[in-house]
Design brief:
The complex is a heterotrimer.
Chain A (H helix, E strand, L loop, with lengths): L1 H8 L5 E10 L2 E11 L4 E5 L6 H8 L7 E6 L2 E2 H4 L3 E4 L13 H6 L3 H4 L7 H13 L15 H14 L4 E4 L8 H16 L3 E5 L6 H4 L2 E6 L1 E7 H4 L2 H8 L7 H5 L1 H10 L1
Parallel strand pairs in A: 3-8, 3-9, 6-7, 7-8
Antiparallel strand pairs in A: 1-2, 1-4, 4-5, 9-10
Helix pairs in contact in A: 6-7
Chain B lengths: L5 H26 L3 H22 L5 H23 L5 H23 L7 H6 L9 E4 L2 E5 H19 L1 H9 L1 H6 L4 H23 L1 H18 L3 H26 L3 H19 L5 H27 L5 H4 L2 H7 L4 H13 L3 E4 L2 E4 L1 H11 L2
Antiparallel strand pairs in B: 1-2, 3-4
Chain C lengths: L1 H10 L1 H26 L3 H10 L1 H11 L4 H25 L4 H25 L4 H10 L7 H20 L1 H9 L1 H6 L4 H17 L2 H4 L4 H13 L5 H25 L5 H19 L5 H30 L7 E2 H8 L5 H10 L3 E3 L4 E4 L1 H20 L1
Antiparallel strand pairs in C: 1-3, 2-3
Helix pairs in contact in C: 1-2, 2-8, 2-11, 2-13, 2-14, 3-5, 3-6, 3-13, 4-5, 4-6, 5-6, 5-11, 6-7, 8-11, 11-13, 13-14, 13-15, 14-15, 16-18, 16-19
The chains are: A alpha/beta, B mainly alpha, C mainly alpha.
The complex binds adenosine-5'-triphosphate and magnesium ion.
Chain lengths: 267, 372, 380
């Protein structure tokens, strides 16, 4: 296909969103969005509630059918690149009283690779335990999932994505409802993923921490306001455009994205 | 066949009163998303009716109604109790409580209620056809069939309750939090409503049986919900639909020589299907037509925004070609073609040798759509 | 009577069929019901079970046959239609799930009753055969029925086990299952089909009106005993079978005990037993735990107070009155009971009728408690 070769020539983006419009019952939620996520970045999607962040992630994963436009991940439609994509849904989207334990949930990350009917075996178990150790949840492997705190649940989801051993990770609010310690642990992990050359996209709500945590950002409110390196596009003008002038408190951070960026590059 | 004897009149009157009484309380059940509670209550009042019947020996005694209705309220609290243990969810709690109570009722009837006219057929179908034979007299004056007198009183109670507490019911239905904050106890309203449902169900039970009461409680309000947005109108419509169901259901039963209660429930289904297809705003046909209209409007705006976003950029040359739409917007050729023609007709765009350009108006529309 | 009963199971043909039939149906509907309960579709089961009535009767009217396989097939088709109607109403109107369920349930059932009156008018006793679909009749189970149940139930269980892993994921985390490219909607259809089968399989034994309980109650009971899905499902099957067999036999032996209601009451007993007694989750254990905790807390408070008093009156530690201790804890705990517990543990001792003092061991314990509290306090 012509589009593929031309994209590959100019150092293929990890995710390429083209003219994407998504509507629920003919009510558009995302209007004609173009977005390139270069490979190997740690990117935040920010925007007010109802901006369409979750919808964008879902459109990338083919969970909602766009009214127009397309998404390519690693140069292919999601259908074909599925095995190389890991997904962390919003924590609230599942029933945590479901009768299963932590290890079992993490093993679900291998179901795609396992294929039909085959059950997880020793190998899956080991991979899952390894991933749990990475998120410091090793000792919780046998714990019933309803007995986890919010932060622990989030880490379990993260571990499940880790065992997917993907190249691109899409995460919906991985920091929602976690304490400062867990947040630091998670971001360290994400930065590790980035240093391994993986691409990580997170929906993020805390505007203060964007410059610390991420190197790339997309500002979204029904349409794309801006996207690019944090140092270039994460400024007051764009934030005002995104949040509609409700972000007076931001001026401190917005004034100093350059220094924040420097901090990110240090580690 | 169409000459009405007094008995037939009376049967229809009872059916109408039952249907209206059910429909009125049903509106609030449907809006509060507790319709299945009516299923639970109508099943579980059975043991209450049986036990109360053993005691008072009269199916239409007010004591029996109150006693049996208490079982209905008991069901509601049992479900809540189970739910509060956090061991089972609400749906499972309902699904455990009422079969248990209903089973007790059925076994009681099967074992002990032989020879009295309370058998399993009555439980399922009621005996509205026999209604005229059981009459109420006061001081020797015939007031009409007992069931009619009883259901009229229940209807009156329902009406009074709804009229008196209209404001509170409305508030508690649409915003439980706010109702609580304003000092109207949602629990009180909840149990008040549940008591009404129970009393109504017990009264109607005699006429149409346990399961078909559900059709009368949930059906008319659900149909009315397709027809209007206003609570007041919804009450009026449901009552009206209840009347229609009662009358048409009765005649359907006469013509087919079938169960009256079953025919009334089937009539609910028929009217529902009609409303489902033909309701003026929310019917399937109406929304299909609206969808079709909106589809092109939506496509046109989508096109406008697409062009707007690329206007003045180097890529514009690429993006605004007609052939390109298929590729980039992922539209199939036919759809793209029709969308372009729609947009041209509505002066959103103009076509100049296979390139598309926004008109001033199109630009305005795109801007408006994006910056909301 | 009891020994009779047991030998009957082996010798008496009827009893063997009843036992076998009830066991198979309990096993199948109990275990297949687990996912319905976990998907919060308990009431969908109720709706389907009522709604299949016209299916049974239509199947009979059209074919004139009373072959269980045909009647069950009719029920399954209409059960499916009912489910589709419910989904259509929920998806295309603003009527919510609950009202759709209730509407479909009652309208279909009402229609079934209309059809029933047609059948009843026929001269032969056909109606009597269909009547038993209302409340079930274990005594009428014959080998044909058992074979049909085995056939359908076995097929359903095979599918269930084959796609176990997929079902689990789809029910637990739909979005994630979608992201892995699973045909989630097809699994929805499959799960719903299994639910329909779980229901129709027991119709002639338990009856349409109460069959939903066979699907919901075993899972709800089983869930209390374990946190593992496999075990929940197995236990649910066992509970279902237990209740099925017990209820069916009682109903077959005792006069005027309708089968469906009897089985349901057996099930209810199992549910109550599980809710109260299941270890960990059971109400009784929760109560015991809470009681123990509050007792421990009580002792701790009283001990801390005693310790403080003994520090204050370092020279003269001859005893502190209960009244003082009560004043210190400001009526929060029952001081006298607390003191008794402490005495038993050797942490405090009585110096007089109404006065108490802390022992050496009590002092050590109090110091440990304080240190622990401090540690926890700094954590927060
Ligand atoms: N399944 C759906 N059906 C209809 N409308 C939907 C659906 N899901 C989302 N919406 C609407 O789409 C809009 C965007 O939703 P989305 O969940 O993408 O927002 P978001 O940016 O993730 O918001 P938040 O910060 O609250 O998570 C909202 O207005 C929402 O009401
Ligand atoms: Mg979101």
């Amino acid at each position: 296909m012509t589009t593929m070769t031309s994209a590959a020539l100019e150092s293929q983006p990890a995710i390429a969103v083209r003219d994407l419009t998504v509507a629920y019952n003919d009510r558009p939620v995302i209007w004609d969005l173009d977005l390139d996520v270069p490979a190997g970045v740690l990117m935040a999607i920010v925007g007010p509630n109802g901006a369409g962040k979750t919808t964008l992630i879902k459109a990338m994963l083919d969970l909602v059918r766009p009214a127009a436009g397309q998404v390519e991940i690693l140069g292919q439609p999601y259908r074909k690149s599925r095995d190389r994509v890991g997904y962390v849904p919003q924590r609230g989207s599942v029933d945590w009283d479901f009768p299963t334990n932590v290890l079992d949930v993490v093993q679900m990350g291998r179901y795609g690779a396992l294929g039909w009917i085959r059950r997880p075996g020793n190998r899956e178990r080991e991979l899952a335990l390894e991933a749990l150790d990475k998120v410091s949840m090793g000792e919780f492997a046998d714990r019933q999932i309803s007995q986890l705190s919010g932060g622990q649940q989030q880490r379990v989801f993260l571990a499940r994505a880790l065992v997917q051993n993907a190249d691109v990770y899409l995460m919906d609010e991985p920091f929602q409802g976690v304490d400062a310690t867990t947040e630091r642990a998670i971001i360290t992990l994400l930065k590790e993923l980035r240093s391994e050359g993986k691409t990580v996209v997170c929906v993020h709500h805390d505007l203060q921490t964007v410059p610390d945590y991420f190197d790339w950002v997309a500002l979204l409110n029904i349409r794309k306001i801006a996207s690019g390196p944090v140092s270039e596009v994460y400024n007051e003008t764009n934030l005002r455009l995104t949040y509609g002038g409700r972000v007076a408190f931001l001026s401190r951070d917005a004034a100093a994205p350059a220094t924040a960026q420097a901090a990110v590059e240090e580690d | 066949m169409f000459d009405l004897s007094t008995a037939q009149m009376e049967i229809q009157l009872v059916a109408i009163v039952v249907a209206v009484a059910c429909a009125l309380v049903g509106v609030f059940l449907v809006l509060r998303q507790m319709a299945m509670m009516s299923d639970a209550i109508t099943h579980s009042i059975l043991p209450g009716i049986v036990v109360a019947f053993f005691i008072v020996q009269d199916l239409s005694s007010p004591f029996l109604i109150i006693g049996a209705a208490a079982t209905g309220v008991l069901t509601v609290s049992l479900v809540e109790l189970l739910e509060r243990t956090r061991l089972v969810r609400e749906d499972a709690a309902i699904g455990i409580v009422f079969p248990a109570l209903f089973s007790i009722g059925v076994i009681l009837i099967a074992r002990f209620a032989r020879g009295i006219h309370l058998d399993l057929d009555v439980v399922l179908l009621g005996e509205i056809a026999f209604v005229p034979f059981n009459r109420t007299e006061i001081f020797g004056i015939d007031l009409g069939p007992t069931a009619l007198v009883m259901m009229s009183v229940i209807l009156l109670i329902n009406l009074i309750f709804i009229l008196l507490f209209y404001k509170e019911l409305k508030l508690a239905t649409f915003d439980t939090g706010l109702a609580a904050a304003l000092g109207f106890s949602p629990a009180l309203i909840h149990y008040g409503l549940m008591s009404l449902v129970s009393v109504t169900a017990v009264g109607a039970f005699d006429a149409v049986g346990a399961i078909l009461v559900v059709a009368l409680i949930v059906g008319p309000p659900a149909i009315a919900y397709l027809l209007t947005d206003q609570l007041r109108l919804m009450l009026v419509y449901s009552a009206g639909i209840g009347v229609v169901v009662a009358v048409l259901g009765y005649w359907m039963a006469r013509m087919l020589d079938a169960s009256i209660a079953g025919s009334m429930a089937s009539m609910v289904g028929i009217i529902f299907v009609v409303a489902y297809l033909l309701a003026p705003q929310r019917g399937l046909v109406a929304s299909y037509l609206r969808r079709r209209r909106q589809r092109w409007e939506f496509a046109g705006i989508m096109l406008a925004i697409h062009l707007f976003n690329h206007e003045g950029l180097p890529s514009a040359e690429q993006e605004n070609r007609v052939e390109h739409l298929q590729d980039h917007l992922n539209w199939n050729p036919d759809f793209a073609d029709r969308a372009v023609r729609w947009a041209e007709r509505n002066r959103i765009i103009v076509r100049r040798n296979s390139h598309l350009f926004l008109t001033e108006e199109g630009r305005e529309q795109a801007r408006e759509a994006i910056v909301r | 009577m009891f020994p009779d009963f047991l030998t009957d199971i082996y010798s008496d043909y009827t009893i063997r069929n009843i036992t076998l039939g009830a066991m198979v149906l309990g096993l199948v509907s109990g275990s297949l019901g687990t996912f319905a309960v976990l998907r919060r579709q308990s009431l969908l089961g109720d709706s389907i079970s009522h709604a299949v009535l016209p299916g049974i009767i239509l199947a009979f009217m059209l074919t004139g046959s009373r072959d269980p396989l045909i009647l069950i097939l009719g029920a399954a088709i209409v059960g499916w239609l009912a489910t589709l109607s419910i989904m259509a109403i929920v998806n295309t109107t603003r009527i919510k799930q609950d009202a759709s369920l209730a509407l479909v349930l009652s309208v279909f059932f009402g229609f079934g009753m209309v059809l029933m009156t047609f059948v009843q008018r026929q001269p032969d006793a056909a109606a009597a055969g269909l009547q038993r679909f209302l409340f079930g009749q274990a005594a009428a189970i014959i080998w044909d029925d058992v074979r049909t149940m085995l056939l359908i139930g076995g097929a359903a269980m095979a599918v269930f086990l084959l796609f176990w892993k997929e079902f689990k994921l789809v029910v637990f985390d739909r979005a994630f299952a979608f992201s892995l490219g699973m045909p989630v909607r097809r699994f929805d259809v499959l799960l719903t089909t299994l639910l329909v089968i779980a229901i129709v399989i027991g119709l002639q034994t338990v009856g349409v009106i109460l069959m939903s309980a066979m699907v919901v109650a075993p899972a709800a009971a089983a869930r209390q005993w374990t946190d593992r899905l496999g075990l929940v499902t197995t236990l649910a099957g066992l509970f279902g079978a237990l209740a099925g067999v017990t209820g069916a036999l009682i109903s077959a032996y005792a006069a005027r005990m309708p089968t469906g209601p009897t089985i349901v009451l057996c099930l209810t007993a199992i549910v109550l037993f599980s809710l109260v007694l299941a270890p960990n989750r059971g109400i009784l254990w929760a109560w015991v735990r809470q009681h123990r905790q509050s007792r421990e807390l009580r002792s701790r408070v009283v001990l801390a107070d005693l310790y403080w008093l003994s520090q204050q009156h370092a020279g003269d530690d001859s005893g502190h009155s209960i009244a003082t201790l009560e004043a210190m804890s400001a009526g929060r705990v029952a001081v006298d009971h607390g003191l008794e517990d402490l005495e038993q543990a050797g942490l405090a001792e009585r110096t007089d009728e109404e006065t108490w003092t802390i022992t050496e061991r009590g002092r050590e314990q109090a110091i440990r408690d304080l240190a622990e509290e401090e540690r926890e306090g700094s954590d927060v």
